[in-house]
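User: I'm putting together notes for a lab meeting next week and I want to include a structural view of one of the chains we've been expressing. I don't have a solved structure, so I'd like a prediction I can at least talk through. The sequence is below, exactly as it appears in our construct file.
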Amino acid sequence: MLNRIVLIGRLTKDPELRYTPNGAAVASFSLAVDRSRKNAQGERETDFINVVAWQKLGELCANYLSKGKLAAVEGELHIRSFDGQDGQKRWITEVVADNVRFLSPKDGAGSGSVSTSTSPLGNEISFTDDDIPF
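Assistant: Thanks for the context. Below is the predicted structure for the 134-residue chain, given as structure tokens.
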């Protein structure tokens, strides 16, 4: 069985870094990811996908990512449920990242990216929206 997801999108806000009671770092953020096809009105729709990064990866995301930055995320899709205060069951869908590639240029510097991963995504290539065929 395989549970892998790869996303490229822009952060909707700065990552939120927290620590568990036993000291594990966890960063959470949301990526805005455009769909590959246009809707009936000829417009692209966007999905907002929650991402969680743990330990050192979470700390790096909190330090190097910010609202509007472009990032590639690779990880597993997790779906969990809990009972809300009103007694209703709630569902949360999120990507637990094990690889994040920072695709936006460094602030105040020329181009470049910072990458952290447990497995490489591949070689970085440069492209513009005009290069994408859909």
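A couple of points you could mention at the meeting. Strands lie at 5-11, 16-19, 25-38, 44-54, 70-83, 89-102, 115-117. Residues 17 and 27 are 4 Å apart (CA to CA).

User: Perfect, that's what I needed.
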